[in-house]
Each structure stands twice: as structure tokens, then as C-alpha cells.
């Protein structure tokens, strides 16, 4: 509520009332402007008038100190305009006590998910290093035990997977050419030309 009393000899007209939130350390820095209330009400000499000015600050300012400035704009009978400060103080916005704060709840969920993710990454990193070290040790032991010729056990391999040496000692082509040389001497010369 804004009250205006006319102690003068002339009437004046209250044009508007406006308010704003400002930075508490510097009142020239505007943070939020509120809608101006258009009054256009005449106040006669010796009378007083009251105006209801409602405003709604943003919820983002909860828990912070802000400078609240309320101004009254008026003019006299001659049309000369004036502006007076009705209220100019630092006020504190306080949070309403709520049983459940969704923002804080989801912040805790998000932080918990990050911690689980970091734990998983650390576990994977440590597990990968341990497996590499263990396999490196086993690999070097296996390599050292297999260095000597015939020091490995092949009993566990099925017989049909083992290589069988079934190749003949002489190629069939050479046998044919030798047998051909023994039977007919002229054909041996022809086959020797084909070999080259």
C-alpha cells in the first residue's frame, strides 16, 4: 500500500506507481522491473489517498538480498511532473519451507549417477591393468617353458587336428619322366624340353 497526502495548497494528480528490484550495493543497477500501476487519481489539498501496488518477484531471487525501490510519479495543476521515492531499502527474500524440494532431489540423483559412473570407470581401469599384468606374467612363463624343442604337451590336441605328413618323397611328375626315359629314349628328350 502506498499512501499520498497533500499538505499543499494545490491539488496534484498521481499518474503512476512503479517498482523495481536493484542490486543492493549499487541501486543504479536494475535486476527486475515491475509493471507500473496507472492511477491518474487527483488528490485535493488537505486530503490523502491510498494505492495498492502489487508485484511478483522472480523465484530465482529466493534467499538473496535485493534492493526494492518504489517510485510515485505525479504532476501538479500546472502540468509540472515530479517523481518521489516511496520505498528504498534492501530486503531479503526467504525460501518457503517445503517438505519436498524437487531441484535438490534431482541434484542428489545427478551427483549419485556421476559417482557411480566414476566408480565404474575406475573399476574398469584397475581391472584392465590387473588383467594385463597377470596375462603378461603368464605369457612370459609360457614362453619360457616352450623355448626348448619338444618341451610342450600335445596330448590334449585331438589326433585329427595334428598335421599328418602324407606328402610323397618324390613328386609324381618326376616319376613319370623317369619311367618314360627308361622305356623310350626319344620321349625323354621331349620331356626334358618340357621341364625347362
From TrEMBL:
Disordered, as annotated region: 155-196
Coiled coil feature spans: none
Domain of life: Eukaryota
Gene Ontology annotations for the cellular component aspect, listed alphabetically: endoplasmic reticulum membrane
Bias kind Polar residues: ranges: 179-196
TM annotation in the entry: 105-127
Listed Basic residues bias regions: 159-178
Keywords: Endoplasmic reticulum, Membrane, Signal, Transmembrane, Transmembrane helix
Protein's cellular compartments: Endoplasmic reticulum membrane
Subunit text: Heterotetramer of TRAP-alpha, TRAP-beta, TRAP-delta and TRAP-gamma. Interacts with palmitoylated calnexin (CALX), the interaction is required for efficient folding of glycosylated proteins.
Protein's job: TRAP proteins are part of a complex whose function is to bind calcium to the ER membrane and thereby regulate the retention of ER resident proteins. May be involved in the recycling of the translocation apparatus after completion of the translocation process or may function as a membrane-bound chaperone facilitating folding of translocated proteins.
Family listed: Belongs to the TRAP-alpha family.
PANTHER family with a match to the protein in the record: TRANSLOCON-ASSOCIATED PROTEIN SUBUNIT ALPHA, TRANSLOCON-ASSOCIATED PROTEIN, ALPHA SUBUNIT
Name of the featured protein: Translocon-associated protein subunit alpha
Organism, scientific name: Adineta ricciae (Rotifer)
Classification lineage: Eukaryota, Metazoa, Spiralia, Gnathifera, Rotifera
Amino acid at each position: 500500500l502506498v499512501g499520498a497526502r497533500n499538505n499543499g495548497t494545490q491539488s496534484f494528480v498521481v499518474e503512476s506507481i512503479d517498482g523495481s528490484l536493484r542490486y543492493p550495493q549499487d541501486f543504479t543497477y536494475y535486476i527486475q522491473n515491475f509493471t507500473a500501476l496507472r492511477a491518474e487519481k487527483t488528490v485535493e489539498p488537505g486530503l490523502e489517498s491510498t494505492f495498492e501496488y502489487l508485484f511478483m518477484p522472480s523465484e530465482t531471487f529466493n534467499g538473496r538480498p535485493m534492493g526494492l525501490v518504489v517510485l510515485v510519479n505525479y504532476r501538479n495543476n500546472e502540468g509540472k511532473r515530479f517523481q518521489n521515492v516511496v520505498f528504498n531499502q534492501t530486503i531479503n527474500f526467504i525460501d518457503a519451507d517445503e517438505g519436498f524440494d524437487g531441484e535438490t532431489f534431482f541434484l542428489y540423483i545427478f551427483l549419485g549417477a556421476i559417482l557411480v559412473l566414476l566408480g565404474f570407470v575406475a573399476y574398469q581401469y584397475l581391472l584392465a591393468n590387473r588383467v594385463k599384468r597377470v596375462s603378461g606374467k603368464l605369457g612370459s612363463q609360457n614362453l619360457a617353458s616352450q623355448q626348448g624343442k619338444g618341451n610342450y604337451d600335445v596330448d590334449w590336441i585331438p589326433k585329427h587336428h595334428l598335421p599328418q605328413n602324407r606328402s610323397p618323397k618324390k613328386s609324381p611328375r618326376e616319376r613319370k619322366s623317369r619311367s618314360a626315359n627308361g622305356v623310350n629314349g626319344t620321349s625323354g628328350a621331349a620331356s626334358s624340353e618340357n621341364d625347362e
